[in-house]
Amino acid sequence: MEFLHDHDITSLTTFGIPARARLFAEYDSVKELTRISRTPEFIENEVLHLGGGSNLLFIHDFDGLVLHSRILGRTLYKKDEKTVYAIAGAGENWADFVKWTVEQGLSGLENLAGIPGCVGASPVQNVGAYGVEAGDFIHAVEVFDVVARETLSLKGSECGFGYRDSKFKHEWKGKYIVIRVSFRLTHSSVASTLTYRPLDSLPDRFGHAPSPAEVMAEVLAIRAAKLPEPAEIGSAGSFFKNPVVSREYFDKVLKKIDPEMPQYSVPGEPDKVKVPAARLIDKAGMKGFRSGEAQVYPGQCLVIVNTGGATAADVLDVVKHVRRAVKRNFGLVLHPEVNFIDTRMEVTVLGSGTSKGVPEVDCDCEVCTSDDPRDKRRRASVLVRTHGLTLLIDPSPDFRAQALDADLSFIDAVLITHSHYDHVGGIDDLRPFCCQDHLPLYVSPDVADDLRRRVDYCFREHLYPGVPTFSLNTISDETFHIKGLPIVPIRVMHGRLPIFGFRIGEFAYVTDAKTIPAEEMWKLEDLKALIVNALRDKPHFAHFSVSEALALIEEVKPERAWLTHFNHEFGRHAERDLTLPANVHPAYDGLKIYL
C-alpha cells in the first residue's frame, strides 16, 4: 500500500482538465481497501473515489485523498433458462462490460453501450441512455462499509434509483464504497427496450425485431456520430440532465415556444414529461458557444468539450451562459449531470446587519451617516458555495437586492435559522430560483409551521401561477445531507427561543444567539472560519454582545472569525476593526471568505 503525494490525476479523467490530488492511492481488493481505511490518510481526510474519471469536473485540486478502484473480474450466474446475473468488479470498464454481456447473448444493457466510465459508477449515477437506466437491471450492489469496515450486499430496490440519482449520492455518500455490481439480465435474441428515439424505428428498418447486438451497434454508431471520442477531445459526457416538467407547462408554455419540442414520459409520474436539454440549448442559440478552450460541442449540445488546454473556469463560464440562456428562453433551469468536485468553500456575506439594518431610518449618528460602504448593512444572510452546491442561509427582507449584488442565478437549497421576519422576510423573492422545481427549504418543525401559516399561498394544493414553490424538509439536531454534503445543525438559544446555527465542513454560521448549550459546543470545534452575531457592546437579553461573542471565539478557537448581525451602536467598521483580536474582524456586506 502506497500513498502518493501531490499526484497528477488529470490522465485519470475523461475531461482532461488539470487536477492534482494531495493524496492518492489505488486498491485491487477488499483486503487492500480495508487496510487503507484504517490509515490516518483515510480517516483524517475527505475521500473521493475515482473510477473511470468520467462525469467529473475538478474545480480545483483535490485537498484530500483520491482512491482509484482496480477491483476487476466478470462472471455469470445462471438462475434459470431465461435469467442470468452478470457480476462485475467496480473497476471494470463499463463499455467493455456491456459489450461482454451482449456477446454472452444477454439482453438488457445494450442501450447503454459506449458510455465512458467504470462499472462502480453505474449504481451511483444510475447511468442511462436511450430509454434505459442501469438501475432498471441492477439486482444487487456489494459495498464496503467504511465505518464497520465490512462488506455487505444491498438490493437494487434499496438504492433509491432516480433520474441520474441514487442514495449513493446522498445519505450513502462517504458511507459505502461500491465493490461489485450484479445485473439481472435475460437470455434473449431480442433487444429489451426500443421505446426511445431513434431506436423505435429499428423494427421497420430491419424488417425484424432487432437483437441486442444490432441495437448495441446502432447505439455505438449514433454516439460516434454525435459525441466526441474522449481520447481525442476531452469531455465529461452529457453535461446536463434533461429537465422534467409538468404536462401543463409543456403544453401551455414549451409547445408555444417550440411546437416541435419532443417529450418523453416519466415512469411513475403520468403528470410529468421529460424534455431534451440538447434541444433547449440549441434553440437558445448556444450551439458552439465558447469560453477560452471550453465549448458547447457543435455535434451534440448536451456535451461541453475541452478543445485543448481548457481550465475549470472556462467550463464554468460556459455552464453559466448556457443555463442563463435556457432559463431566459424557456423558463427552465438546467441541472448538471456532471459532478463538480470542489473541496474549497466560498462564503459570501450578503448581509451583516440586525433587524433594522444600518443605516437606521431617520438616524443621523456617525455610523448611519458614514460614507464607508462597509457601514451599509442589510439584514443578516450568507451564501455558501462548496462541492458544486450553492446554499443560502436565511432569505432576509433585503434578499432581492442582495441577490442582484451577488449576481446570483441558482440556489440548490435554503437553510433557515429561525422564522423571525429579518431572517425570512425575503422568502417571496425566491421565485426565480424555483422555476419548474420546488426549492428545498431545511427548517425546524416550528419554522415549517410558521411558514405554512405566514406564506400559505406557497403551500396550497392549487397554486397561483408564478408563486414560489418549496419542498419543506424538517430537520432536528442531527446531521443531515444535501446532495451528499453533510450539514450539522447547531442548537443555540435566541433568548428563550431555540433556533439553529449551521456547520458546513470547517465553517460555522451562528446568528441571533445569546447562549449555546454545553452539549452543542463540540460542533464548533476545529473550525477554520466562524461567523457569529455581536449586536453591540451593551448586553441584550436575546443576542450576544461584542464581549460575549469574543468570549465564545476565545473558547472554541477558530482559525479566523467574523462578527455579524450588528446594529449602529456597534460603531464604524474601520475603527472597530482596530480594537479586535488579530484573527477577528467585523463582517461587512459583500465580504468573501475562502476556505
What can you tell me about this protein's structure?
Helices cover 20% and strands 28% of the residues. It is of the alpha/beta class and 595 residues long. It has 4 domains: 4-69, 2-Layer Sandwich (Uridine Diphospho-n-acetylenolpyruvylglucosamine Reductase, domain 2), CATH 3.30.43.10; 75-224, 2-Layer Sandwich (Uridine Diphospho-n-acetylenolpyruvylglucosamine Reductase, domain 3), CATH 3.30.465; 230-341, Alpha-Beta Complex (Uridine Diphospho-n-acetylenolpyruvylglucosamine Reductase, domain 1), CATH 3.90.78.10; 345-594, Ribonuclease Z/Hydroxyacylglutathione hydrolase-like (Metallo-beta-lactamase, Chain A, 4-Layer Sandwich), CATH 3.60.15.10. A hairpin with a 2-residue loop joins strand 18 and strand 19 (294-296). The longest helix is centred in the middle third of the chain and has 19 residues, at 312-330.
Notable characteristics:
595 residues; alpha/beta; Uridine Diphospho-n-acetylenolpyruvylglucosamine Reductase, domain 2; Uridine Diphospho-n-acetylenolpyruvylglucosamine Reductase, domain 3; Uridine Diphospho-n-acetylenolpyruvylglucosamine Reductase, domain 1; 7-stranded mixed β-sheet
Task: Set down the secondary structure blueprint.
Blueprint: E1 4-8, E2 20-27, H1 30-37, H2 40-43, E3 47-50, E4 56-58, E5 62-69, E6 74-78, E7 83-89, H3 94-103, E8 106-107, H4 121-125, E9 128-129, E10 132-133, E11 138-145, E12 150-155, E13 176-187, H5 202-206, H6 212-226, E14 234-238, E15 244-246, H7 247-257, E16 264-265, E17 272-274, H8 277-283, E18 290-291, E19 294-296, E20 303-306, H9 312-330, E21 339-341, E22 345-351, E23 381-386, E24 389-393, H10 399-405, E25 413-415, H11 421-424, E26 439-443, H12 445-454, E27 470-474, E28 480-482, E29 485-494, E30 497-504, E31 507-510, E32 529-533, H13 546-556, E33 560-564, H14 573-577, E34 584-586, E35 592-594
Parallel strand pairs: 2-5, 3-5, 4-21, 24-25, 25-26, 26-27, 31-32, 32-33, 33-34
Antiparallel strand pairs: 1-2, 6-7, 7-13, 8-13, 9-10, 11-12, 11-13, 14-20, 15-17, 16-17, 18-19, 19-20, 22-23, 22-35, 23-24, 28-29, 29-30, 30-31
